[in-house]
């Protein structure tokens, strides 16, 4: 909304105002900025409109917000795929643990696996050890 100042001089903010209804603006017209009261009134209208939302629109908003939260959690906990070098290193560690278990005993290999503090290494070692023991007829 444009406010046209009528009356008063150029340096004064005094004078009456009238709303400009059409889009024709002359160079000699002087306009004042929108008042803070008008801004507050507009914000109050927006808040009232927000409160008038239907239960369906509130439900849709809550579902969308929940999906955003889930996506953030998934991105946070999703482990990046290991590089080829990391995978080879882990496989070598697991094979060394299996060899140690067969040669020096399972207890010693389990202690070493626990020291790695890697759930992946411990789980993969267990799987590989069971596989090796079945293959050798020890299970």
Please tell me about this protein's structure.
By secondary structure, the protein is mainly alpha-helical. It has a domain at 84-135. 63% of the residues lie in helices and 7% in strands. A 3-stranded antiparallel sheet has the order 2-1-3, with no helix packed on it. α3 crosses α5 (119-135). The chain is rod-shaped, with a radius of gyration of 37 Å. The N and C termini lie far apart (85 Å). Residues 8-21 have low confidence and may be disordered.
Kindly list the characteristics that best describe this protein.
139 residues; mainly alpha; 5 helices; 7% strand; 3-stranded antiparallel sheet
Order of helices and strands: EEEHHHHH
How many helices? 5
Low-confidence stretches: 8-21
Radius of gyration: 37 Å
Task: Give average pLDDT, whole number.
Answer: 76
User: The biggest beta sheet, please?
Assistant: 3 strands, antiparallel
Query: What proportion of the residues is helical, as a percent range?
Result: 55-70%
Structural class label? mainly alpha
| Separation, N- and C-terminal Cα atoms | 85 Å
Cα shape: rod-shaped
State the total count of DSSP E strands: 3
Strand content: 5-15%
Please outline the helices and strands:
Layout (H helix, E strand, L loop, with lengths): L2 E4 L9 E4 L11 E2 L3 H16 L3 H23 L6 H21 L1 H10 L3 H17 L4
Antiparallel strand pairs: 1-2, 1-3
Brief synopsis:
The protein has 139 residues and is mostly helical.
């Amino acid at each position: 909304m444009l406010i046209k100042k009528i009356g008063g001089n150029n340096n004064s903010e005094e004078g009456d105002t009238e709303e400009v209804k059409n889009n024709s603006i002359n160079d000699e017209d002087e306009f004042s900025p929108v008042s803070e009261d008008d801004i507050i009134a507009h914000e109050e209208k927006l808040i009232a409109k927000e409160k008038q939302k239907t239960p369906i629109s509130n439900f849709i908003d809550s579902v969308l917000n929940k999906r955003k939260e889930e996506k953030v959690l998934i991105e946070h906990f999703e482990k990046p795929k290991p590089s080829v070098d990391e995978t080879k290193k882990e496989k070598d560690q697991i094979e060394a643990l299996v060899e140690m278990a067969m040669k020096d005993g399972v207890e010693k290999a389990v202690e070493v696996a626990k020291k790695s503090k890697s759930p992946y290494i411990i789980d993969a070692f267990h799987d590989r050890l069971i596989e090796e023991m079945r293959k050798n007829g020890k299970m």
